[in-house]
Write a structure and sequence with these properties.
Shape: globular
Number of strands: 2
CATH class: Mainly Alpha
Number of helices: 8
Strand order of the largest sheet: 1-2
Radius of gyration: 17 Å
């Protein structure tokens, strides 16, 4: 039986947020800076949904989404908080303690990333904060971001699982060990 260490997940997400703001802008070429919308805290929200359940992922996504709304996207407070909380909850609901293979984790990360960016786009479109077309946004921003999120999730999944999960011995395992 396993249980997630939520305190470690919060610390890891804060460290990834610092890396996202301090290191990643130096690595991305200036021509691509408008195309790639990197959200490392969203990837951690997906991991929390997979390892800790939908309720923890909802609160985790809500908190870090609000933090991203305040830090990066000052047009409106709430779209990333709403999107990350909703998608974290939905991924946790879809997963619901099934076998978590790496391919399934990457699929959920990609689908969740695409849904998050399109949801934020439609919220911005609703309040007339953007005048770009949906197909342009999908091919220009959502698809490259989705692929990058899947690549980062591939690199971070095993180390974060080792760092975040605590194994709890069941009663039958305790009886065998005695």
């Amino acid at each position: 039986m396993t249980k997630i260490r939520i305190n470690r997940a919060i610390v890891a997400a804060l460290i990834l947020l610092l890396i996202q703001t301090a290191v990643v802008p130096w690595l991305i070429p200036s021509a691509w800076s408008g195309r790639l919308l990197i959200h490392f805290s969203f990837i951690m929200t997906v991991f929390v949904a997979l390892l800790g359940g939908r309720h923890r992922a909802f609160l985790f996504g809500l908190g870090f989404g609000l933090l991203e709304d305040m830090l990066f996207y000052g047009h409106m407070i709430g779209p990333y908080a709403f999107g990350m909380a909703l998608i974290g909850y939905l991924i946790g609901l879809a997963f619901d303690r099934r076998l978590n293979t790496l391919a399934f984790v990457l699929l959920l990360t990609g689908v969740g990333s695409g849904l998050l960016d399109m949801l934020v786009y439609f919220i911005y479109k609703l309040f007339s904060l953007t005048h770009l077309g949906a197909s342009f946004v999908f091919y220009w921003q959502v698809l490259p971001t989705l692929l990058l999120h899947m690549l980062v999730a591939l690199a971070l999944y095993l180390p974060s699982r080792r760092f975040l999960v605590r194994h709890i011995a069941s009663r039958s395992e305790e009886a065998e060990g005695v």
